[in-house]
## 1
Amino acid sequence: MKTNRPMASSSEESPDKIDIAILSELREDSRKTLQDVGAAVGLSPTSTWSRIKKLEAQGVIKRYTVDLDPAKLGYHDFVIVQLTLESHTDETLYEFGRVLATIPEIQEAYLVSGDYDYYIRIAVRDTRDYERLLREKLYKIPGIRHSKSSFVLRVLKEASVPLG
């Protein structure tokens, strides 16, 4: 039976069970060979490569990276900063985001709803390093009305998006 619905293009397809298995293997170790990933999911290396390329083209796989240990690089503390801005014009929000992107210690920044405008996670070496970052970088950004900082005492869970 013929339908009038347009066919979904390959870039709109959701990952199937095999794609999810491939993603799971790559998330465990993105340096696994095509042979190892294929063997784990029951595909040939060529079929595995084709599926990985499709997932990259769809933007499901955004990049390949290295998971670094912050403490071994001297960053022993994380601070969650809640910020409120004086103004919420498009220009102010854009400029604030642009400046945040230039500060390497800022690991994540979220524009949020609620009492504060932003939640920011910052990696610091210690409390003195945080005080320096506040003085030299964060508080030099124009338009900050209020901030509240909380040091992370212990990370209870870190995870990426669930698969399947």
Note: The two ends are 31 Å apart (CA to CA).
## 2
Amino acid sequence: MISDAPPESSPLTPLFRAAGTGPTLDVLGVTHSYKAMASDTGQQFSIWESIVPPGRGAPAHTHTREDEAFYVLSGEVLVDVEGVTDPLRLGRGAFLFAPRHRRHGYRNVGADTARLLVFAMPGAGLDHMFAAFDEEGRRSGDRLTIQTIATIARQHGVVIHSSTG
């Protein structure tokens, strides 16, 4: 479960998470292993490792409230980004900044699991959206329809686009 932010008067404290620790969520078949949630950073950002099996990823979508940044730790993903003519093939060490209001989506096109470090600024809306995907996936036996995904996303300021546009 995603916790609420500390009160404004609460000072931020240092956060340390050892490798392999931290909250995890199943987000449409991609594991998010959180390094810091927005509730840990005064709502400034959240950061997680996305563990992306072959063929999985995120459908084309547009954030209205957050910017995202991706750093590829391992594997290879193909990313479509509004404003870039051809899909970008990102391998180990590649970085991409995806500003809000720009459609983007990705999928693992390799044979191995890809690992991405993903930053969301600010992060609370996405943290809550991903928690809702995880919860609904558990409730439905991981059979979320695109309509359900789009409805949850819309509640958090994210638009899911159809594959045709």
Note: The first strand starts at residue 24 and ends at 27.
## 3
Amino acid sequence: MSRLTPSWPPVEVEPPVAHPKAPAPGTKLGVHFDECFGCGDAHEAGLHLRSAVGESQTVHSLFTVTAAHQGAPGLAHGGLLACAFDEALGATVGNLLRKPAVTGKLETDFLRPVPVGSTLHIAAKLDGVAGRKVYVSAAGHLDAADGPVAVRARALFVIVGVEHFTTHGDVEAMRKLADAHEKAKKDRQDWEINP
């Protein structure tokens, strides 16, 4: 049983509708930005989260806990687990709705320890949309998609314009993202819209 507050979404919402160009179920999702701590490859101790689109507006992500991710000896740091869920939930919003969005609120419910060497199978789903607000939730299963639930999370994401990133982000990082977009277009690959 979850210890998160009972009403979710906490406001009246519309059913989420996936964008017509959202990746199809079974599609493996790429890294949206190589320097992203959550999914990118530039950080050796990053989370290196890998995701794929599932059925019914879900995204399935894998996070393998390494020694670099521990808090207590031999156990994953709670903040890094929250980071993994933020990344998985954000990948769900960005890839299925194809709109740039940022985390407005993230709640986590830690149900059991997550040992170093284990893999969390995170199943995230869109729960509803209210204007610019997008509600998503996820469960993290230990070592198998049907393993015991170790962490539950839910979040509110807010859809923003690209100017949010150009105004508040690093100019050099935005240039790298634009360069990656141009390279992907030349390689005829799809580009993840959610920076």
Note: The two ends are 34 Å apart (CA to CA).
## 4
Amino acid sequence: MTTNENNTATTPYVPEHTPRTNWSEHAPEVFKAMLQLDKAARKHLDPVIGELVKIRSSQINHCAFCLDMHTKDALAAGESVERIVQLSAWEESQHFYTAKEIAAIELTEAITVLTDGFVPDEVFEKAAKHFDEVELAHLIAAINTINVWNRFAVSTRMVPGHYVAGSH
């Protein structure tokens, strides 16, 4: 048992895990290319939708590092705690989101999970009703990009909790 600054007993947290490797240090060209891909994917995408997509994909992929980063960035950009919390159960709380945001979230799930090996036509068509072709292409790029970031972070066990909003 430890105590805090008020001399109140607290229960210590489990220690942080150790990252497996610093992939960006050992593959700097890949890291730089990913940063450029990320920047290009966001170019024609509403930043709010971009953060919702990153958070939802990171939830699905169990990427704690990316969840830490993108929830902090979303909060710093003015997103509400309520919408971020409800995102994990968006199907039951759609009233927190616009129809366009729901279409993006559904497309994110379809691309991220690929349970049936493809993105269902109805999910794609719904997104196409809310996004013009340029926006849709960038949305697809953003969803695929966060999935790649998630896979780098999860496979190398990047440690969450140290990211400062806006620093990436």
Note: The helical segments are 23-26, 28-42, 47-60, 64-76, 81-86, 99-113, 121-130, 133-156.
